[in-house]
Amino acid sequence: MDTGQDRDTDIGYAWVALFAATFSNFITGMLIYSPGVFNTAILDEIENDLSRTSWIGSTLVGTITISGPVAGVFTSRFGCKAATCAGGILVLIGMSASSFIKSVKGLLLTNGVLTGLGAGLAVNAGGTIPGYYFKKRLPISFGVSTAGTAMGLFAGGPLVAILLQKFTLSGAFLIFGGIASNLCVAGALMRPRREAATEASVTRQPHDYKLVPVFVDGNKVQGDSKVISDHYGNREDDFDDHEKIQTKYSRNQFVTEGGENIQNESTVLHSETGNSNMPGRCLNFFRRNMSLITANGFLFYNLSLLFLGLGENAILFHLPNYAHSKNSTRLQSANLFTAIGLCSLLSRLVTGIISNDKDISIILLHVSFLGIAGILALLFPLFSHAYPLQMLFSALYGLYGGGLHSILSPMTVECVGVSHLAVGYGMTHLAIGIGYILGPPVASIIYESSKDYDHTYFFGGGCLMAASVCAAAVPVYRRSHGS
């Protein structure tokens, strides 16, 4: 039976939504991978203390990811369009304000927290909306959308280097903020599904119910729409042996399995048991979503992402300074990100296509990519003395490191399901965000104590290897728990 939900699934406006997600990720990709280039100018113009200035970039990237749970709840409540547009406004304000700041502490607030929070909203929406519009082509759609991040990496480094040369740090911040404000354009294209369908299971129990507004995919339903929902989020696992009524929501009617209409206004029958006051509802929401952590080895996957954030941000953030210390020019150092971005783009697209094959394990790809990227980082100090070899490392790291981000959303879906994608995606970004915040400062402390960038890459490579081990524990956990 053709439903309204199928009308835009994998076809039609789904491709417009995918373009919007890819464009949004392109802009956030430039923001995520540009702090290392900006940091060279901050060292020259504001403060020549690497251990202090590195906190600016790590706070930006860390806030983008660590704000994931908040962004996930915001996206789930208000929708992808509102989240992306709000993110674009915050990024514009943060980057514009940064152009007037001349202190590290001020940049921590404007360029770090404010810009990072806005980009975090956009990242969550861009990673969530393909899950609403695609089913058969879901892994490929995620691969294409995350390829936008790689394109941002490809363009961001050289663009920032050129802006810094022509307009200095203040002008570069201002122009970059104007470019990033195009997130609002991407958000305007992320319209909610015109017709949505959802399955709900409701027990016949002696509970009291009250009427509350309906939200489908984070958007309030208007008109004569109706849904029955229980306070456990429509999860059949939460009902033991109680009798269930199968129900179905469509835009114009709400019927039981027997075809009987239930109500005449846009409402939800919501159990008041244990939910009669706001603190109780908040506690129930927190308990329900935090239980996702232990689902299908999701905890080990998040630990893997934490180590990934530690290692990857330490490697990429210090790459321009490391290359410059090996007698490469500033522009050559920035161009290393072009090699990473180009190969990362190819990797994300190919990984998205490969992961669409049901016979290929997504977690196996994750473990393999992490292991190879870790080995590359550990070996990089041995062949970093020449610029062509630096380019080779950048290309190989982009090839194996880029694919990791292409399977982030499919792995989240595999662990927690599409219905919890927004919140689950936020949790993964919280984990990787902690690593992104701590990676550059820890690596800077290692450099300050040894005065040798080689040790920072030993640290980064070791973190990636630890991430590979944690990811390998996911299938072990699943087999032991029969998941």
Spans of at least 5 consecutive residues whose pLDDT stays below 50 are 195-276
**Fourth-tier CATH superfamily name of the largest domain:** MFS general substrate transporter like domains
Please indicate the percent range of residues in DSSP E strands (runs of 2 or more).
Answer: 5-15%
**Mean pLDDT, nearest integer?**
76
> Class of the largest domain in CATH?
Mainly Alpha
Task: Please tell me about this protein's structure.
The protein is mainly alpha-helical. It has 2 domains: 4-181 and 289-481, Growth Hormone, Chain: A, CATH 1.20.1250; 198-278, no CATH class. Helix content is 69%, strand content 6%. The protein contains 18 helices and 8 strands. It has helices spanning 4-7, 13-33, 35-45, 50-66, 68-78, 80-98, 104-133, 138-180, 183-188, 278-290, 298-317, 319-325, 330-354, 362-379, 387-406, 408-416, 421-450, 454-481, and strands at residues 198-203, 209-212, 215-216, 219-220, 227-228, 244-249, 254-256, 268-271. The strands form 3 sheets. A 3-stranded antiparallel beta sheet has the order 1-6-7, with no helix packed on it. It is globular. The relative contact order is 0.15. Mean pLDDT is 76; it is low at 195-276.
